Amino acid sequence: MDKSVDEAAALVTLILAIAVLGVVLGIAFLIYLAITGVIAIVSFNIYYKIAEREAQELDDELTGGLSTDNILRSVFGPDIELPTDGPENTIDWFEYTVLGEEKGHAD
Question: What distance lies between CA 3 and its chain's CA centroid?
């Protein structure tokens, strides 16, 4: 009977050791994922800023630093109200106010 009790105790000890090892490895894996996620986010932000800067340089080279809004304000005065967002843009504003086109008019 002592032999079966010893085997049962050894089996329980083995199961507990495997469970503890699983919990420790699970926590280590979660820490690894957290560190990897932080590294990925920081790398993404760095590359995003680099790409944003290069896009701005390319935009400046192509447009000479001028924007449609700035050109329209220099021609029609700084007090004009240009659309900032939504479905309308500055070209629509130009058509509707300067050229007198009707909104929603399709050719």
Answer: 63
